[in-house]
Amino acid sequence: MKSILILGASGFLGRFLVKNFNHKNINLLSPTSKEVNLLNYSDLLNLNNAYDEIYYLAAWTEAGDFCLKNSGKQWIINQAMNTNIIRWWTENQKKAKLVFIGSSCGYGEDSELKEKNFLFDVPHESLMAYAMSKKMLVHGAMSCNKQFDMKWICGIPATLYGPNYHTDNRQSHFIHDLVKKILRAKILNEEVILWGDGNQRREIIHVNDFSKLLIDINEKFENEIINVGALSDYSIREFAEKICEIVDYDANIIKYDKTKYVGVFKKKLNISKIKQKIQNYDEKLTNIDDGLKQVVEWYKLTKAYK
Questions:
Q1: Nearest CA-CA partner of 138 in 93, 94, 103, 190
Q2: Domain of 238, in residue numbers
Q3: pTM recorded for the entire structure
């Protein structure tokens, strides 16, 4: 029976990943961050079992301009966790395959966003510290594969969206921020002001789809970086219009603040690599309109837009 450890299981992605494993065929351990603090190496040493797979999902980050304002702490905290994980993996879990998450912010602004470019592209200045910590994690895995024959895989997702998103005071990724602002306008009669001119383009992938595909790519690939993206990208205006249609709100009265931070203009992952080995990839992705309806309904049901 396979033994699997998920670090970061209480996060947005982690909760879906736990649900998507077949628990009848595996022994699954999914400690909380309080039970295993990745900044404390001794906490990892307390995990005495031998694991076949270790899923490392944790990272210290938020959306919006968080990376711009917290570059130093982001580097220190994420690098500390990464180093602890790599060290513990190589010293105590030599038979385990390490499955971890990259970030599309590691790609350059004018890049093709192909996996072969990930380690060599220069990230956008505002995302540099976080992006470089992700690149260093890949370098760590590659180095340990070279010297110790350790096995790994890195999945790079498009922006994750879906129900059961965090409801604390962290900054939300753009798609959840759009849903909340438009719902507040519809229900609480607030004004909708979006950052930028609305023409910047983004792609999103349903968190449930990505969690399943992460399991799939772990089975199909080894010692590689794999983009896991959507079929199409959309402008912020187009996303807003889709949400407005679901909510029954007039998209024409949305205001756009061109003075605000917007990051890179476009970000669309090249997914030719994953489609070569994952059959019927397109069919594994939730329809964008159906997925957004799920998110809107969750926010309305839980009143998480407040």
A1: 103
A2: 162-202+232-267+287-302
A3: 0.94
